[in-house]
Write a structure and sequence with these properties.
Elements lengths: L2 E5 L7 E2 L15 E7 L2 E7 H13 L1 E4 L5 H4 L11 E4 L4 E4 L2 E2 L1 H14 L3 H11 L5 E7 L3 E6 L6 H12 L3 E6 L2 E6 L4 H12 L3 E5 L6 H6 L2 E4 L4 H4 L7 E3 L5 H18 L1
Parallel strand pairs: 1-5, 1-13, 13-14, 14-15
Antiparallel strand pairs: 2-4, 3-4, 6-7, 7-8, 9-10, 10-12, 11-12
Length: 270
Amino acid sequence: MPVLVASDLDRTLIYSAAALALTMPDLRAPRLLCVEVYEGKPLSYVTETAAGLLTDLGDAALFVPTTTRTRKQYQRINLPGPPPKYAICANGGHLLVDGVSDPDWQARVTARLAGECAPLAEVQAHLAATADPLWLRKHRVAEDLFTYLVVERPLLPEEWVKELAAWAENRGWTVSLQGRKIYAVPKPLTKSAALHEVARRTGADLTLAAGDSLLDADLLLAADRGWRPGHGELAEAEFSAPSVTAVAERGVLAGERILREFLKAARQGR
């Protein structure tokens, strides 16, 4: 019976230059490996040690990248180790099997969204009417499933985010602020639902997970064991659960630590 490892990517396992949090003296900084290039420029990194751990994890467990990224954004990432059989994209909206979205899963997700929450168009209209051009930089729709804003974070009023969260809650949506992005995501669109589906298909008897944002909370609670880094929305909210471990490390070293924990637990589980 396989061990299934479902991990968020951005700011959990992979890090932009701005999120690396290299606070040590330069001479002691870890060597980095670029795992994503966008428009000809390096975008995301892991430490070289983490790259080796990812390769080992691919041999010890079924590794399932689990991300809020769209399929196109996910496919830019080139992680070390064997190509994943499964990947979860668009916060659970797409379940990739050998790189192709599973049509049965997509149909199930579409049906749930239609029956359980306000339509995307209503949320888009509200954001367009209330977001201030002073701090709004981009308004994007992801996979026709959810929407997000790119903002100037120092100019963003905290009260506006709270008001948006309350408005969205009443319509079956969740709001998450991650760096310069504000996500509005339907509540039925979850990483945990996709995790359960992969576990069902593979017969996994142990599930492990990691994530840093509020959109990862359900994933951590759905797994047998979970980890969160010392940064991010979950750390700021002091999120805790009996099965979830908060690591002290922040930035790219947190990703390395989480991979060590995954590998240790996977080997013990097997």
